[in-house]
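Data card: per-record layout.
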Amino acid sequence: MDRGDADHAASERARRGRAGGTFDTRPGRPAALHPGAWWLWALGLGTAATRTTNPLVLALLTATSAYVVVTCRSRAPWARSYAAFLKLALAVLVVRLFFAVALGSPVPGTHVLLTLPEIPLPHWAQGIRLGGRVTAESLVFALYDGLKLATLLICVGAANSLANPSRLLKSLPGALYETGVAVVVALTFAPHLIADVQRLRAARRLRGRPDSGVRGLLHVGLPVLEGALERSVALAAAMDARGYGRTADVPPAVRRTTAALTLGGLLGVCAGTYGLLTAEGGTYGLPLLLAGVAAALAGLRLGGRRSLRTRYRPDRWDARAWLVAGSGGAVAALLTLAAADDPALHPGVVPLTAPALPLWPAAAVLLGLLPALVAPKEPS
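The structure for this 380-residue chain is written out next.
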């Protein structure tokens, strides 16, 4: 094959890659999944976790997220954050149980496990108890409540391990372009600051000077601050030379409409989320959340007209992204429907009964395993 045929074959592979949503010219390498799909999938699992206190269903949600993370995550440094979220979830569970033991619980119970010395409190602190009886019912109630929050944290950790943060920032709408750049700069400069501190402390130790304490901190902190300022000035000059900060002129009516839509949409998202997380707001939570998301997206789209920029190789939202995001949304929707009429999703603690695994809600949770089948492994 001569050079002309090789160039033609390379261009043909690139054309096929662009048509299929991938930018890797090597044959057989699938495109990386859109990072927003991972977050929608994880938020769907987290929403499902808020609709139940059944420890078996919560354990199934945790196992589902863990299996997808082990199957699909890459070997990049940011992909190792899942273990940190597991430890955080365990710490939250331990703290919740500690509060149930130390501060008591409003749940009545007859199975007394131990009795702690009770500290008398003034009359204005009625309803608060320090010490006293610790019942099995109160501990089980605290365990169920803590497991719900721990599962939610684990689902967020799964999104952090699977979604590439730099690609996620690149996918931000134009209205949030400046925010994304600020986050990228912060994430880029943080390793330099740590490296400077380590280098200066090692240099002081080699010279026999103290590198700890107040004196060592002052002698190390000032050079680090000076280096950070120098890098900041150099970066600002480079960004100014490349035209960063230039905006297009938009009519005042468009600016006011953008602000109203964005602010109203964010308020709607907050109110709708609160409604979904509480039993009393289940009727208005979902419509208000959807309306808030639509208004916020419209505001961000209008606000993006001010940003004069283009994206280099933008991530495409393909059929696999729809499947991944849809699987998480299906789990959330089915668990929300099941929570309304299936008492097994909220096992009682008075009297103490063993939780049962509801069949069709458990089968709905298994839909969250779909990304392990359709999503490619993130390139390292």
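Known properties of this structure: The CA atoms of residues 272 and 288 lie 5 Å apart. Residues 6-28 have pLDDT under 50 and may be disordered.

See the next section for split statistics.
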